[in-house]
């Protein structure tokens, strides 16, 4: 059996991490800050941002398993907080403003992606003359 660079991923785990990241960004100030910086600051898409947060969550989970501790919500200055305090912090500090998203969309439209180039095989195929059609030949 040939080994590959990455083992096959479990699609159910990916969906669970995606949903967990979407829920956790509303309560955890560190995740909310990261989501806000990526979506409002850099202008990345929400799906990409949630996948990044999912990777952070799985890393936290592995650290908690290895150290045999529970995950604790902390404010940016390392004070432990409750879920309600985390929700209040996230909604007050890290709300993605609609005007910021309009600016992000305007930047995307102003700098569209490069048009894809054709491969040499496609160009060779286009430049090759086609043989004349003769009825009765395969």
Spans of at least 5 consecutive residues with low confidence: none
Task: Count every helix, treating DSSP H or I runs of 4 or more residues as helices.
Answer: 6
Number of strands: 0
| Quaternary structure of the protein | single chain
**Strand percentage, roughly?**
under 5%
The Cα radius of gyration reads 24 Å
Describe the structure.
The protein is an all-alpha fold and 138 residues long. It has one domain (11-126). It contains 6 helices and no strands. Helix 1 crosses helix 3 (46-67). The mean pLDDT is 80.
Core attributes:
single chain, 138 residues, mainly alpha, 6 helices, elongated
What's the topology here?
Blueprint: H1 11-24, H2 29-42, H3 46-67, H4 83-93, H5 98-110, H6 120-127
Structure at a glance:
By secondary structure, the protein is mostly helical. It has helices at 11-24, 29-42, 46-67, 83-93, 98-110, 120-127. The chain is built from six helices and no strands.
């Amino acid at each position: 059996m040939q080994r590959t660079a990455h083992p096959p991923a479990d699609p159910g785990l990916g969906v669970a991490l995606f949903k967990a990241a979407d829920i956790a960004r509303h309560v955890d100030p560190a995740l909310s800050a990261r989501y806000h910086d990526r979506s409002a600051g850099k202008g990345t898409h929400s799906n990409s941002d949630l996948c990044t947060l999912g990777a952070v969550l799985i890393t936290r989970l592995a650290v908690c398993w290895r150290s045999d501790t529970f995950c604790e919500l902390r404010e940016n200055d390392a004070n432990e907080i409750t879920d309600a305090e985390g929700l209040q912090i996230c909604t007050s500090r890290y709300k993605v403003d609609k005007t910021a998203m309009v600016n992000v969309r305007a930047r995307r439209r102003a700098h569209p992606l490069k048009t894809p180039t054709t491969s040499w095989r496609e160009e060779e195929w286009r430049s090759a003359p086609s043989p004349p059609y003769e009825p009765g030949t395969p």
